[in-house]
Amino acid sequence: MWNLTRFASSRLSRTRRLFSSVIPGPCIVHKRGTDILHDPWFNKDTGFPLTERDRLGLRGLLPPRVISFEQQYDRFMESYHSLEKNTKGQPDGVVALAKWRILNRLHDRNETLYYRVLMDNIKDFAPIIYTPTVGLVCQNYSGLFRRPRGMYFSAKDKGEMMSMIYNWPAQHVDMIVLTDGSRILGLGDLGVQGIGIPIGKLDMYVAAAGINPQRVLPVMLDVGTNNQKLLEDRLYLGLRQPRLEGEEYLEIVDEFMEAVFTRWPKAIVQFEDFQMKWAFETLDRYRKKFCMFNDDIQGTAGVALAGLLGTVRAQGRTLADFPDQKIVVVGAGSAGLGVLSMAVQAVARMTGKNETAAQNFFLLDKDGLITKERKNLDPAAAPFAKDPGQIVGLREGASLLEVVKKVKPDVLLGLSGVGGVFSEEVLKALRESVSTRPAIFAMSNPTMNAECTAADAFKHAGENIVFASGSPFENVNLGNGKVGYVNQANNMYLFPGIGLGSLVSGARFITDGMLQAAAECLASYMTDEEIQKGILYPSIDSIRHITAEVGASVLRAAVAEELAEGHGDVGPKELAHMSKEETVEYVFRNMWYPIYSPLVQEK
Ligand SMILES: NC(=O)c1ccc[n+]([C@@H]2O[C@H](COP(=O)([O-])OP(=O)(O)OC[C@H]3O[C@@H](n4cnc5c(N)ncnc54)[C@H](O)[C@@H]3O)[C@@H](O)[C@H]2O)c1
Ligand SMILES: O=C(O)C[C@H](O)C(=O)O
Ligand SMILES: [Mg+2]
């Protein structure tokens, strides 16, 4: 069922080739003079050619010399490298925030240059504008705040959202990432400060999926916060009230969704970092009504499933062995349950049996192993609850150490949000795994919240493990020229392609079939050689290429389900007639590439 077709070896160079011939089309601007210089969408700083300076009323507002895009790029990178040099030896957090600030200043001033440096240096810059530094930025957001980015809808705006949405200056919006700030990474409720997450996710959309930055919208839904420290912080910028609950909460989200889809019926909304109860409830409420998905539940599930299938291959087994893998999942929240649901669907498809599909999966939360004896068993966790006594000696609430010792799992996967729960003892117990090559997925973010570090995993569980973490870690030097590979099991490998594929297919909804196609595409991306080395995911350097492939798979699944209504001039029939290769080319063609466009003024 899984087609592991090899992709062209030189993925990155192919991507570069596709964009090297980009000829910038004109860009319509309704402003003149300093208004253009102060608008990061249009600003080219010293890069405005003289003719354009004349046409747009810029002559005399800039120093006379015209600096090329390449020179501007080099100048920025030089400042960045000198900042790196000057902050050497300072605490990690201080350095990370200094790097974030310099990038953020460029983002605020000149988006084209910002996205080009981001794209070309994605491996170095993703950890700054995205996970893990974005977590630190959210924690300090009220103090770091200089200029607003995105939109803020608060509980005080009830009844006003339909008109407020028209305050957004862009006529078209393709991609919206929405949070209520209630579960920011593993950092808990950060209230309005969680806006950093939609901003970081949308930066990845631009860099990876080539969504035009003029068509993205980060949104914070501020319904209050239950974080006492923030409520007492005099600098806190959000509503100083406890979170709305129940119907009051849902009315706010309903009103926002209606407003968005009234103005932009073709937009896609990604729900991000909602606490579990609202993550599931809103997904259920809106997924058959609007084009939306929940990244923490659905994006994470696909990335984890691709990693789990890679693990089976790394163990020298065939994919048909996946249903026999014993997998212990630590964390029964939106992410953990999302992963298990998708894994169960995969097993059911492979075996043709629904009833026994979850039998090799074990689920723990903060109270230990979840069994059918659990009081107040969450209905979402119920399908994974074990029969007590199914494994001799495993009782309700058994500790992680007990479970690992008894089950001897092939895979230990953490989505608990708790740093260090894969303790030395737990990791050592994994040496008794039934597998010759057990896998550890410490997927919680940011770095401090990872269930274990890469170094500890290789040290305590053994050098033959496969390792993945949600936040980036350096590869581990195992001595004698051997390397312990670190994979980044992060939903960034899928959400951009899910959004892009949905957009360019004009899908009405985002279905399980489309998400499965995305996961299968990622799973089949890696060569056997890479997998044997323990490399489960591609390098982030090739994120545009991966995203195009994932986007094309999502598109084809939407076509197959007759949900694709077309995009721009391309209708559903044309989409249906495209070959696999043509679909990928079509997806690439729809990607925005950062290059200065001639600005044309519309009177
Ligand atoms: N790598 C990725 O792509 C990715 C994607 C989504 C979420 N995450 C991370 O996963 C974590 C959890 O996210 P979520 O949305 O599921 O959160 P959540 O709050 O919905 O769930 C957390 C779960 O962990 C359990 N838990 C807490 N302490 C525990 C302990 N000591 N032992 C075992 N279980 C414990 C809780 O009972 C709960 O079931 C966060 O840190 C988030 O950053 C990572
Ligand atoms: O934001 C990330 O890096 C992944 C994930 O969405 C998370 O909530 O941790
Ligand atoms: Mg998230």
Automatic annotation (TrEMBL):
GO terms for cellular component: mitochondrion. Involved in the regulation of sugars and amino acids metabolisms during the night period. The keyword Plastid does not apply. GO terms for biological process: malate metabolic process. It is found in: Mitochondrion. The keyword Metal-binding applies. This is Malic enzyme. (S)-malate binds at residues 183, 445, 490. Its cofactor is Mg(2+); Mn(2+). Residues 107-287 form the Malic enzyme N-terminal domain.
